[in-house]
Amino acid sequence: WHFRRYLEYEETKTRKMVPEKELIKFLLKFITPYKYLIIFLILLSLINLATGLATPYLTKILIDEYIVSKNYNGFIFILAIFILIAVINFLSSSLNTYYLAKVGQGILYSMRCKMYRHLLRLRLEYFKKNETGAIISRIINDVDAVSDIITSGAINTFINVLSISGSIIIMYEMNVELTLISLTIIPLIVLTSYIFSRWTRRAYKKTREKIAKVTTSIEQTVSGAKVSQAFVRRRKIDIQKFEETNREYLQASMEANKLFSSISPIMNLIRAGGIALLLWYGGMMILNNRLTIGTLIAFYAYTERFFGPVISLTMFYNTIQSALAASERIYEFLHEDIERDRPNAIELDKVKGKIEYRHVYFSYDSETLLFKDFNLSINPGETIAIVGPTGAGKTSLIKLLFRFHEINGGAILLDNIDIRNIKLSSLRSHIGLVLQEDYLFKGTVLENIRIGDPSAGIDEVKRVVKELGIEEFIESLPNGYNTSVLEGGKNLSAGQRQLIAFARALLSNPKILVLDEATSSVDPYTEKLIQNALEKMIKDKTCIIIAHRLSTVRLADRIVVLSDGRVVEEGTHEELLKKRGLYAKLYYEQLDKSMIEAVSS
């Protein structure tokens, strides 16, 4: 168990240490709802402890007072007490195991739910700074480690301390000399554990680093599966690198395992030495009529109950450190900055759809400004197409409108209201979004469309699909609305994913539509479906399109051309062509490319 805890994935980057008092206070929030159950568990554990401590003493009485004197009635009486104690121990142990699992799973459930809710509110910057594997590790591995330690770990530690104390008191009452003999072995156990903890800490740190590399390697392979399969030579290199990384992990793991596997035998050897010393000294006392056989047998049983908890406590220190590190990472995760509303943020009832970027300043890295005194006004019901070269700031404009990032200066207004004064949930509920690579969740086509409005019935979904003119496309799928969708929509084409995304966006009935048009090539039939659906979507709505297709650009009432975070041109398609500026250059470059592709096909 201890070894498994060490091998769990742990991010090795430098972190600011959280004070242990703060961590304990943080963990108590999850424990408090189960305080009465935990008290009950402690009572059950005390009953287990009491029955366990009573058994050796009853053995002493049975041998010294009834077997030696051949007292049959007393012998039967003590045996009856033995059976009663065994039944009590069985019942309390069973209840203890059940309720311990209940508390542990409850804390695990509460902690994971809190982390998941927090995950949904984190800013986009967090996901850019942290790898997916590290985030998953927080919610899975770290929660497991902390859940174990604050239930079974904490209670067992408490009981172990009481077991040691109780054993020493009873042993002291029976015989002072044998008690002192037994205690002499404790310093050796503590010293051995300390030395091994120093060695194993270094070994396990190395193991965690290697398993993190293995995890990253697998994650990259899964994400880049198409590239790996397309480029055979690259695949061979990936296999070689993975085998090398995996071999390094194997070596580090074996070194750690070698250390760990030697701890228990050495501890058992020390314990055996202590017991041998006890039996020798106790035997000599019996031969000299200074000790009874029953007392020596009871002492032997108590030393077993004594040495076990002592060894567990010394080894448990390392597990405590691992759990504290895990709780520190959970603490840091739950204290990551989240999206927040201003204190007096308002709900929007009705939206006309007027958008204005007024003297906006924005930078991703706080050094290089992407937008400097940027201004753009969009009228209600107007469709504008935003075009420009890569890095011009097209997608950034959309992110700022959704408040995925906060501006450094100026204001973005919706119906003359600063969007920072609108509740995030209200702001985003009035804006429909179709991304360039829109994500589809694992489920069915119907479930993915209903993300736009989870309360919508099948009739409402069908109405939206019909309004978009894509009912024939839906019906052409293997099982229509019930067609299974793989994670990310991998079993659908780019065009099909975008049509489903259109339906999802329209189902939310937004007054404002934002479309980051897909650049992927689609067949002529799907292209026509997309264009027809797009024309119907933008009707009577304020629409912002980051356009890539020439046909889409012509749908716009106005085209805004961006370059280096500035509006360099503005007008209709015909007006901008006459200017022979950046737009005309981009247009003819794409036109030439389209002609070449058409001739090739």
Largest beta sheet, briefly? 6 strands, mixed
The average pLDDT value, as a whole number, equals 82
Class by alpha and beta content:
alpha/beta
Q: Taking Cα atoms only, what radius of gyration do you get, to the nearest Å?
A: 35 Å
**Uncertain segments of ≥5 residues (pLDDT<50)?**
1-15, 596-601
Stated plainly, the CATH topology of one domain is called ABC transporter transmembrane region fold
DSSP summary, beta strand count: 12
Oligomer: single chain
Please identify which CATH superfamily of one domain we are dealing with: ABC transporter type 1, transmembrane domain
Strand order of the largest sheet: 6-9-10-3-11-12
Instruction: Give the DSSP E fraction (strand runs of 2 or more residues).
Output: 5-15%
Tally of separate helices: 21
Morphology: elongated
- The name of the CATH architecture of one domain is Up-down Bundle
Helix percent reads 55-70%
Polypeptide structure, described:
This protein has helices at residues 2-7, 20-31, 35-67, 72-119, 124-129, 132-174, 176-183, 186-223, 225-230, 232-287, 293-334, 394-401, 424-429, 445-449, 458-468, 471-476, 494-507, 524-537, 550-553, 573-579, 582-600; strands spanning 355-363, 369-378, 383-387, 409-414, 417-418, 431-434, 443-444, 484-485, 512-516, 542-546, 558-563, 566-571. It has 601 residues and is α/β, with parallel strands linked by helices. Among the domains are: 15-174 and 319-339, ABC transporter type 1, transmembrane domain (ABC transporter transmembrane region fold, Up-down Bundle), CATH 1.20.1560; 176-290. The strands form 3 sheets. A 6-stranded mixed beta sheet has the order 6-9-10-3-11-12, sandwiched between helices. Helix 4 packs antiparallel against helix 6 (132-174), helix 8 runs antiparallel to helix 10 (232-287) and helix 8 packs parallel to helix 11. The chain is elongated and about 120 Å long. 28% of the residues are buried. Residues 1-15 and 596-601 have low confidence and may be disordered.
